[in-house]
Design goal:
It is rod-shaped and about 60 Å long. Helices cover 59% and strands 17% of the residues. It contains 3 helices and 3 strands; from the N terminus they run H-E-E-E-H-H. It has a 3-stranded antiparallel β-sheet. Keywords: Cytoplasm, DNA-binding. Binds to DNA and alters its conformation. May be involved in regulation of gene expression, nucleoid organization and DNA protection.
């Protein structure tokens, strides 16, 4: 039992490390605002084109930044959920017949 728990913790750490190395991005206004994040939802880069600064006011740039951030974080969430679902499936199949208790 403790061996399975240890394996589950180890697998979770492996997934977290893998998610740290996956980059996702979100853009707004045709790429004039771009945000890069890890799949662990850590923002790594924000870029705003000089052209956008010249064309728009502060409030509009902030709105576009929010759009790009939310897109990047949504993409990170999707990648994270996919990785966790795959790991959960692996763990359940490792339990033999017990995995079938949950309809899998």
């Amino acid at each position: 039992m403790f061996d399975k728990l240890f394996q589950a913790q180890q697998k979770a750490q492996e997934i977290k490390a893998r998610l740290d190395n996956i980059s996702v991005s979100g853009e707004a206004e045709g790429g004039k605002v771009r945000v890069v994040a890890t799949a662990n939802k850590e923002i790594k880069e924000v870029s705003i084109s000089d052209e956008l600064f010249a064309e728009n006011d502060k409030e509009q740039i902030e709105d576009l930044l929010l759009v790009a951030l939310n897109k990047a974080l949504a993409q990170a969430e999707n990648v994270s959920q996919t990785e966790m679902a795959a790991a959960s499936q692996d763990m359940l199949s490792g339990l033999g017949g017990l995995g079938n208790l949950f309809g899998k």
